[in-house]
Amino acid sequence: MLTTIRGARTILTALGRRRQFSAASRRIHAPSTAELCTALDAQASYAAVTGRSVISVSGADASTFLQGMQCNDMVQASEGGMFTGFLAPQGRMVADAFVYTVADGFLVEVDERVSGRVLKALQFYRLRAKVNIRDMSAEHAVWSVWGPDAPSTSATGAAAGAEDRRAPLMGQRLVMPVDHRPSLPA
Full-prediction pTM beyond 0.85? Predict the structure, then answer.
């Protein structure tokens, strides 16, 4: 319910409390998309992506095994990395993930809140596949790097990385040892 009292708007919440918002609160400048793009394009930057877990899947059958476990084509992962999802047997989304190619297999980056469920499913459906699955969250951290001068994955010293193609200007996702940071050009 919305009522007007003395030039200010009062919103009655579901709990019955009143909150007043003055006309001045609507005058806050929100930057346009063009202004945000200009600010992001100004220089290379990086930030730690918290709340993510890293799972290692390695072995002779790692690619075939992951092909059957997630909903994207593993050929894309062989090009460096890809964004994908893990589904429950009923077809419901369990987790979104990034899959990165490394020398001995793949690194799977998922939200830490569902990493236990994904790890359990990977181990449950392993059956006789020649794969090794282990949680690498204590050893690896996830970073995001963006901007025009952002270095390539190999130049940052990352264990793995890929372009984040979910939206323009998202930059790159990097998986690095916990005690390292991305190195950017000066």
Answer: no
